[in-house]
Each structure stands twice: as structure tokens, then as C-alpha cells.
UniProtKB/TrEMBL annotation:
This is Predicted DNA-binding protein, contains Ribbon-helix-helix (RHH) domain. InterPro entries: RHH_dom, RHH_sf. Keywords: DNA-binding. Pfam families: RHH_4. GO terms for molecular function: DNA binding. It comes from Bradyrhizobium lablabi. Gene3D superfamilies: protein bp1543. Residues 17-82 form the Ribbon-helix-helix domain.
Amino acid sequence: MCKLFSELDLKSCAFQIRSVRLGAHVTSIRLEAMFWNILEKLAAEKGATLDRFLTKLHDETLRFHGEANDFTSLLRCACLVYVESMKDVFDAFGPPSDKE
């Protein structure tokens, strides 16, 4: 278990501040690089740009909850839900194979 953390690339833990467009508004979001990587992957899987994906997530949050008090925390949690869902896939079918 310690190797999981001791071999972690510290660059992936560093904060990155990105300027993003949420609909008609431009804002800055500060997340660790690893979370940005996951969000980019999620956006690509949905066939959307990162800004468009974040806008959709923000709009859905407003529609279902009326507000997005801490959108950055919501983004981190969305990434964790995604990673957890991938774990379930690996548990059911095994990790992807390079031989396919």
C-alpha cells in the first residue's frame, strides 16, 4: 500500500488553475492535475470539449439542486464516482488487455 503513495508522481497532485467557460460565464477552477486528467477523459468519452462537459454538469446541478455552492468539490466527487465505476468494471471483467 505504501508504494501506491511513495511512487505517486507529485506533479499529478499539484494544483492547476484553469480558466473555463460555463455557458456564457468565464471562471477559474483550481483542481489537482489528476482531477483535470479525469475530467478531460470524461469529456472525451462524452464527445464534448471540457468546457461543454463542465457546462452541462453545472447546468444539471443547478436544475436538480437549485445551486452549485462548491462546484470544485462536486467535480472532485464526480471524478471519484467515475473511478469507482471503473473499479466495478475491472472487478466484473478484469482490466483491459493489451492483446486485444
